[in-house]
Amino acid sequence: MDSIVVKGNGPVNGQIPIAGAKNACLTLMPATLLSEEPLTLTNAPRLSDIKTMAELLASLGTEVAGLQDGTVQALGTKEITNHVAHYDIVRKMRASNLVLGPMLARMGHAVVSLPGGCAIGARPMDIHTDALEKMGATIELKDGYLHAKTNGGLKGAVVPLRFASVGATENILMAATLAKGTTVIENAAKEPEIVDLAECLRKMGAQIEGEGTSRIEIQGVDRLHGATHPVVTDRIELGTYMLAPAIAGGEVELIGGRRNLLEAFCDKLEEADISVTETDTGLKVKNKGSRVKAVNVKTEIFPGFPTDLQAQMMALLCTAEGTSVLEETIFENRFMHAPELTRMGANIEVSGGTATVHGVDQLKGAPVMATDLRASVSMILAGLAAEGETVVSRVYHLDRGYEKVVRKFKGIGANIERVSN
Ligand code: UD1
Questions:
Q1: How far is the CA of 315 from the centre of ligand 1 (A)?
Q2: CATH class in words for 22-230
Q3: In CATH, what is the architecture of 2-18+233-420?
Q4: Using one digit for the tens of pLDDT, what is the confidence trace for 209-231?
């Protein structure tokens, strides 16, 4: 299995192009199940999760092409030939559950494996299923699979979500485009990936209003057609690379970055004494040369501080002057990176959903291992600031969500290599 070796090498400088968003692409791809005509997604990231979604769509009867050149071309789904999303694929990637809404809307039935828990928490699907039941579906759990069907199609309804779940909002939004009548999603998630999905669905002929707010109204239509859509910028990749100069020193411009994708995160960087400026082509981040200041961080739904940047922010705060408190409110078990960072000399105490980080003068390189995607990249970031060599194993996590990660870090002068063991 491959590892990534990072050697602390002083400041980083240069530019990094930011890719299209993994999480947006993973919800745009299943939207192809809603139409017989082709859907082309440009600015798609080249990631293993995207291949997994293509594999799942292929198993349902949608041919997907062009994954290597940054486009995803789903050749339309004349007929959904298989209505079972198998455990073998769903267990690899939780976002596979995003085929449930579109399959149910298009065919009136779907069988989708429950994904099970993952390294960061239990991750149930009750919000998705409650909402689809309000729209007239009957859903039963049998042998680990959700068996969903409708009697004559989904019907529009008012669906209040008990929590603003990203995946549930996406599933319901897609399902409602072909439902009879009007659906109103209350307490909808507002993430940029949902706005992107709504924009794409509208290009396909859907009637949607209110995306980006907590109330989305969808007027069902009889059919959707093909479209071409560019995937929105990956705000989590953006935030991750913004932390490289913050932790290692230097100045880096993130090409394609926009502040409004990450307002709360940018505010926290500034509070830590890192400068963030908008340029004509992106966002520029500069470490002013002094030690970063401790800040308190609480993860929240958009537009709050994203949970997907909590591990990376923790790496930065390990080196800050003073004590920072990080509160994780979205997932119950998302501090698995803390003991690994501790192996690098960090001083972190975890108690329930709160981590207290006492900044240290100097991190030290160590062999570390991550249990999830964002935790893995937090260790690379820590390695940039550490004395000596950090070896990050289980690199397959990174392949799921960071395109050309070694090349991008090398491009700003980091001493980083991927090695095969
Ligand atoms: C998406 C993102 C993920 C991000 C998360 C929160 C994708 C592919 N993944 O995941 O990277 O970390 O949003 O921003 O876009 N919950 C329930 N019942 C449900 C659904 C969710 O209890 O039916 C809980 C989850 O266990 C979790 C919280 O709600 O604690 C947030 O989950 P959700 O917003 O649904 O995240 P995902 O869509 O899975």
A1: 23
A2: alpha beta
A3: Alpha-beta prism (3.65)
A4: 999 999 999 999 999 999 999 99
